[in-house]
Structure formats: structure tokens, C-alpha cells
Amino acid sequence: MAFGSPTKNRGRRRWDVDHRLFALAIPLALLTIPRGGGLAAEPKRALIVGAGTDSSPSGAFQARLGVYPLNTNVAEPLVRLTPEYSVEPLLATRWEYVGKNTWRFFLRRGVKFHDGQLFTAAAVRWSIAEQVRQGLASAPLTEDAVRVVDDYTVDITTTETDLRLPEQLVHPNYGIFALKSDPRSKPIGTGPFRFVDYQPHQEITVARFDGYWGTKALPHRITFRFLPDATTRVLALIAGEVDLSMDIPREQLGAIASKRGISVARARVGQVMSLNMNAHGRPPYDQLTDRALRRAIAFSIDRRQLVRQIWQGEAEVIQTVSVPAILGPYAERVKGFGVDRAQAGRLLDGAGWKMGEDGIRRKGSAALRLTLISNPEVDPATVEFVQGQLRTIGIDVKWAKSPDLGSFAARTSAGEFNLAVATANQNDANPMFLPALIYDSRSKRPFARWYHLGPALDRIIDAGLQAMDSDEVCRRAAEAIAMIVDEEAIALPLAGLFRIYAMKSSVEGFVPHPSQTNQTWTAVYLK
Question: Whose CA is closest to 256, among 22, 28, 21?
């Protein structure tokens, strides 16, 4: 039986669907293009993009050159994530569940890698084995998960029942690479762009692959400049050093909008910022093993004020740790917390934490002081807002700043925190993705040990992974998130964030994807 609507039939057995801106008196030398190149030196129809931090050298968060988290479109997975969080064919033209935890994928013929190798089932088997070996696979796969049926058919078998596999394989980490290539240093994929050059912490350049099997890319060449400082990215755009800048600070939007020849684009919510609480911490980070304290914290933070005053409306108040859109109508089943500082005070009093004369609560000789860490990409104003809100109920919060993503990841994995302000992206089509990744006791991610809820939550996650019907999957995912947020207050969703881009008016064809790591660049061009 064939289906023509991936969104409505996600779980079916068969698929067959082919701050104000700083004065510009800042020396332009600060914005010098790496390696001395200027716009005039770029090839015709080249595009220059101002990107954020280069995370590849640190290896943080499973960085893979030009693929994840910055996707330059050099590699492709078997299936694609649409902006509506459904699944479409890519290197696989169709797929079906054949039983015994096995999915069969039928591969696209006539596809070539950038080095001229023919794309076949052997490359799929080798690539997925490498992904498993490097710890990049979120699905329950082993190195022997892929069986070659013939040159253009593969069976992929999970170690446990997982009917979400096609929804998981859209992640760029499941990109298919040429046999025996090294995606960490020189990715050779089948994508619309081929890898050209990489200068750590400076830039990565790709060029249009004229042998691409699908619609050819419009840009002849794209250079992604790594500009970690957001103000520098904005100034680079105004100065003409880049054509498009990613992740624009909301406080600079008003000034950008007043600049002639610059436009702004926003992606729908695809990223959630949450306050995660270490529910299994070891001394001296064990205070939040007490559920009453976690709930008191959740009752104390005015998230509407956060969105209105700090985020200036460039975010949404949400209750879910996943993007609400992927849960459909079931997102409303997660109720979350309103602001009730009187209730927060009662919970703290009941837990033995009494307000001291200095405004800090104490239990005996111990003061209620917590350590907070944050992803360095989270702006300081948000962290300071959280600190101020918790101080109103007598909790003193020390902010232990992380200089980079690597150090933040290391501290999170080690459990050296009470609170963590972090962002999570919905980068696949699986509604159970984030509950299983972060809160399942069996998750292979080291940070999950501080957030899991044990067998009760694990059973709900299993039910969602094993459900054939897409409606049932969304219902189970919402049930899991309600336990994480409403019942146990392991996480407090702070806001659903908009990804904001700014570009020259000469840039055409850019449509922001809610999942930035699934962004496509093929239709972007310069007038």
C-alpha cells in the first residue's frame, strides 16, 4: 500500500513517496576576512555566510566537519526532514517495515559521490557502521545493523523494537559518505555541494557539485565564516564582509531593520531553552535530589516576563521540552508551571529551608546556594534573569561560566552543577527524540544520568518507540514530557526560540528551516 503524505502516515508500514548596534567607528580591521580575501576575490555567484562558533576542533556534541552542527550540504542521509517535521525521500526513494525490528530501504540509482564513486548499498553499510563506532547514532544500532540485500537495497535492523527509525535517520549525522573517506577532516558525500577547504576557527568553503543527482545548487560557492561574537557577525553584514548572518541577537534587530538594504528572516520554533535540574547529583551538587526544591524553582520563574522583557518577544512561552509542533494537539497535555512564589515558599519551608535575615534560606548551618552552568551560546541576560528570580525566594545562585562548548559539555557530563541552562534542538522527526536522548535511564549520553526518571519513564518511551500509529507516538511523547515537567520538575522549559537571520537585500531564496542543522542552501543566490 502506498502513501502520499508522510506527515499523516509517519507510523505506517510502507512509504512510497519519491542592543543597538555599536558605532561603525569600530575599526574595520577587526572584521578582516581570513586569509586576506575580500568580496572582489570571490568567484562569481559566491555566497558568504557569517556563522557562529566552530565546534569541530573541540569535538563537542559529536561535531562532524561540514555536516553537524553546521550543515554545509556536502552529505545526505537516506531521508530528509521537512520544515513540518515529516520525512521525505532523499538517498532512499522508499522504505518499508518488514518485521523483526527490520526496515528495508530502496536506494536511489545513478547517484555519485564527489570523488566519482558510485553510491551503492556498500556505502550505506560502511557509513552507518562508522557512525555507530564513533557514538553518533541515536537509534539502537550496532556496527552490523545494515545488511546488503543487493546494490540498491539494504535492511537496517535495530537491537530493539524501534519503529521511529526512518524519523531518526533524517539527522545529518546519518549522512552517507564515500567508502574509506574521513568525514572528520575531508567529507566526501553525495550532496549538492562538495568540500573545498577548511581553516579551523576561520572558515569552511564548499562549491557546487555539478554532478549532483538532483536539482543543481544556485550558488557557485559558499564560504561559511566562523564569527563567534554575535555583534561581529552583525557588523560584518553591515560592512559588506558577509552576505547573510546567522543567529542575530534580538537586541540588535531594531537597529538592523533601520538599515537600508538589509532584511530579517525568522525560523519557526525549532529550539527549546530549558532550565535542567540535577536530580541525581552527588555532593556538593545534591540539593535538587529533593523534588520539592525542584518544584519550588519551577514556581518561581516568570517565563512570560523573560520572553517579553529579556527576549523582547523573539521567543514563545512553551511548556514542553520538545518543539510543540512535533507533538501536535497533544502538546496541550503538558501543563507546566505558572508563577506562584507563595507556593514556592511553602515548598521550601516544608523542606526545612527557612528564610534568613540576609534573604538566603538556610537549613541548620547550610545556606541554600546552587551552582548554575549554561551553554555559552545562551546570552548572559537570560542567566542573570534566572539568578534574580530565584533570589526572590531565597536561593542564591552562583553562575559558573563555561568558556566554550567543550567545557560546558564536560561539566554537564561530570554532573558538576545543580542547574543548567541549555538549548535543545529538534533535529529529527521522532517525537520521542529528546525524551529518549536526555531523560531515559538507558541513554548513552553521559549527561542523561543526572536527569533520568527510571523505569516508569522508560516504559512510556518504549511504548512510543514501538507504536505504529503516529497519533499514538505523539500521545506517548506528551505523556513522557508531562512526567518530566509537570510531575517531577526535572526540566523547566524557559522559551521556544526563533532562529533569526539577517541578509543583504541582494540575497534571494533563503528559507530558514526550524532545525538549523537541517538547513538547505541550494536555492539561495545573489541577485
Answer: 21
Q: What are phi and psi of 512, to 5 degrees?
A: -70, 135
Round the CA-based radius of gyration of the chain to a whole number and report it: 24
Domain boundary among the residues 148, 174, 200 is at 174
Residue 430 CB neighbour total at 10 angstroms: 32
Instruction: Grade residue 45 by pLDDT with cuts at 50, 70 and 90.
Output: low
What pLDDT was estimated at residue 481? 98
- List pLDDT tens digits, range 65-82: 999 989 999 999 999 999
d(CA 240, CA 232) in angstroms, rounded, equals 12
Helix (H) or strand (E) holding 315: strand 315-316
Inform me whether the pLDDT recorded for 499 exceeds 70: yes
d(C-alpha 134, C-alpha 495), whole Å: 32
CATH of the domain at 102: 3.90.76.10
Query: Same domain, yes or no, for 122 and 88?
Result: yes
Mean pLDDT of the chain: 90
Say how far apart CA 156 and CA 79 lie, in whole Å: 14
- Nearest Cα neighbor of 279 from 271, 292, 270, 290 is 290
260: domain CATH number?
A: 3.40.190.10
Do residues 283 and 241 share a domain? no
Looking at residue 58, what is its pLDDT?
59
CB within 8 Å of 331: residues ≥ 6 apart = 319, 320, 324, 325, 478
Is residue 179 in some structural domain? Answer: no
Domain total in the chain: 3
Q: Residue 462 falls within a domain, yes or no? A: yes
At which of 141, 174, 207 does a domain end? Answer: 174
Return phi, psi of residue 289, to 5°. -70, -15
Rounded distance between C-alpha atoms, residue 426 and residue 516, angstroms:
9
CATH number assigned to the domain comprising residue 461: 3.10.105.10
| CA 524/CA 176 separation, integer angstroms | 24
Residue corresponding to grid cell 506562584: 340
- Cα 244 from chain centroid? 21
- Domain around 503: 28-58+191-267+499-526
pLDDT band for position 510 (50/70/90)? very high
Q: How many contiguous H segments (helices) and E segments (strands) does the chain have?
A: 12, 25
What percent of the chain lies above the pLDDT cut of 90? 81
In this prediction the pTM is 0.84
Q: What is the pLDDT of residues 223-258, one digit of tens each?
A: 999 999 989 999 999 999 999 999 998 888 887 878
Instruction: With beta carbons less than 8 A apart as the criterion, state whether 525 and 45 touch.
Output: yes
Instruction: Note whether 352 and 471 are same-domain residues.
Output: yes
Model confidence pLDDT, tens digit, residues 93-133 = 999 999 999 999 999 999 999 999 999 999 999 999 999 99
Q: Please name the residue ranges forming H helices in 116-219.
A: 121-133, 165-168
